[in-house]
Amino acid sequence: DISGTWQMETLQVSGTVTLGEDGIIIPGDIWTWANGWTETLTAGTYQMCADGSVVLQGNTSDGPFHFHGILRQKGDIISLRDIPALEAPDRGLGFLIRKGNNYSLMDLSGWWCVKGTALSGYIQTDGAGTITGSEWILPDGTTQPITGGTYTIDPETGTITLQVVAGEKSYSFLGVLNKARDIAILRNEPPAGPRQFGITGNELVILVKSVNRTFESKDISGCWEITAMHFRGTIVADASGVITQGTLIDDGGNIRNITGGTCSLNSDGELFLHLSADDDTFSFRGVMSPYKDFIVFVESLTGPEITDRNLGTLTRYQPAMAVANDSRPGEENS
């Protein structure tokens, strides 16, 4: 059951989505774009299949939306992409987050791995509102030590603010911690002065809780849905980390078969993924969530010419039936 109110964070908009119990999206929620423009949800429907795939479609005061997504097995995050019609606004990669209650500063204590559209790295906190260290990894591959900062968590809503200091630079983020308290999804707040160093556009960052747990290569085994900035699709991996099949769907709707690949998982949950689709190859670096059903990744490539890291997620799912490709509700098999 996915009915209820979900927080929405995408590359372009932030707001809420309220899902009724009868497949109807309740109108009235307001979505705020990064430039301050707002749109109001006027009508919509949603559908979820047995494998966890979700489609949300409808209209706002700004135009139609058509989100394709996948629900993690823990039940509190839907990774999605807006698949806009011609001339419709594109809200990009995003997430619906189901929130809990009775949050405290301790919920963000310890080490967190950060993956973002531009910034990645690690953050360490003391569980009392202070960021005590670690480092940013910038798109060009250079690192920037985090020297301090603060954070807050609203006890009822799970809303998070991060103020991160890295040398003479500062970064501000606003977002939410999920119900399971292992994933936080945030967007950069517009700076009052010059743009935040290292961020050249809308920045979406995902924090993954680092826990004292041993991960094994067999944890990657199974079916995973890919949801990323520049493509979506599926992969199937065996217990040794070999990718046995899958598909990629690019922004133009073109479907390509994955012809091979490997993935390796370190004991701390760090993932390295390499795959081939037709004539293209891709390399990603990611991290697995403590519940082993959700992976956040960015492309491994860095350099001065890199404008984004193709932020994405892998969400574990259980196929409801054998299908010819990656079709989802509202799509036809090709």
What does this structure look like?
There is one protein chain. The protein has 334 residues and is mainly β. 0% of the residues lie in helices and 53% in strands. It contains no helices and 25 strands. The chain has strands at 4-10, 13-19, 30-33, 38-48, 53-60, 63-71, 77-82, 93-97, 110-116, 120-125, 131-137, 143-145, 148-153, 159-166, 169-177, 183-188, 204-209, 222-228, 231-237, 243-250, 255-265, 270-277, 280-288, 294-299, 312-317. The strands form 3 sheets. A 9-stranded antiparallel beta sheet has the order 12-11-10-9-17-16-15-14-13, with no helix packed on it. Strand 9 and strand 10 form a beta hairpin. It starts with a strand and ends in a 17-residue tail after the last strand.
What is the helix fraction of residues, given as a range? under 10%
Q: Trace the largest sheet across and list its strands.
A: 12-11-10-9-17-16-15-14-13
Oligomer: single chain
> Mean pLDDT, nearest integer?
88
Give a short synopsis of this structure.
The protein has 334 residues and is an all-beta fold. 0% of the residues lie in helices and 53% in strands. It is globular and about 45 Å long.
